[in-house]
């Protein structure tokens, strides 16, 4: 594997400093630290036999191949080498770099990435998880429009401080919204770029969010909510077994654990999180006209969670 090009761009993501040869406009710029970057993204050639698209284990870590986009070699929880495919859209390269490839790196570091969004309420972080289409980003958009700080979209990375408290740092400052959610919020799709360029059937768009606070500091994670659809709005606390199942089921790229062989670290992190924070089931009807009502009830409940 060979890498070239200086990693001259510096960013912050999930509390980690990232140095990149690629410009990553989705991320927050960061000043170089004396300790050096936690993550290095390089452009280069990947000396590996030609393979079909997919994820493969290698001697150095993992190789992710996205057809007609790029090949990503991820190793040591610190390095990502990107080999671009001819003619690919830069936005698509970044889509998989900051998504699946970054997910692999997070697993290699032994951190806990949840498939969910997170919002700051009264100085604490609240995460809401769920399968694709559960309404995570739509709910986050309401919070954003009400002036709340959005910490992360789609991926929320949990780490534990020296005292064992679960903490969340800011992720990518954008929301991915389907057309109906954008229109329901009063936005216009023409103002935003599609999340995946070149596929007109993929009707999802990247919506930047503003920073209303510093992205540097981590916030304590106060609770996790598992979103699901139902006939009526209801929030119920889950028991330890159900709570653990929610975390396992909503681990971002949980299938990567077989590649990284970090099952034990992941298991321990999930159990530690269940011990330290409450996990709730949040059921709500899928009715965008009542989104504000349901989101306000969620915010009220979050504020009632003991510190």
Structural account:
With 307 residues, the chain is an alpha+beta fold. It folds into 2 domains: 108 residues, no CATH class; 192 residues, Rossmann fold (3-Layer(aba) Sandwich). The protein is 25% helix and 34% strand. Strands 1, 2, 3, 4, 5, 6, 7, 8 and 9 form a 9-stranded mixed β-sheet that branches. Strands 10, 11, 12, 13, 14, 15, 19, 20 and 21 form a 9-stranded mixed β-sheet that branches. A hairpin with a 2-residue loop joins strand 11 and strand 12. The mean pLDDT is 90.
How are the SSEs ordered, and which strands pair?
Layout: E1 2-4, E2 9-13, E3 16-20, E4 28-29, E5 39-45, E6 54-57, E7 61-66, E8 70-75, E9 79-84, H1 90-108, E10 112-114, E11 116-121, E12 124-129, H2 136-145, E13 149-152, E14 156-160, E15 166-168, E16 174-178, H3 179-184, E17 193-194, E18 204-208, E19 219-229, E20 234-237, H4 240-249, H5 257-260, H6 263-276, E21 279-284, H7 291-304
Parallel strand pairs: 3-5, 5-9, 12-19, 19-21
Antiparallel strand pairs: 1-5, 2-3, 2-4, 6-7, 7-8, 8-9, 10-14, 11-12, 11-13, 14-15, 15-19, 16-18, 17-18, 20-21
Helix pairs in contact: 4-6
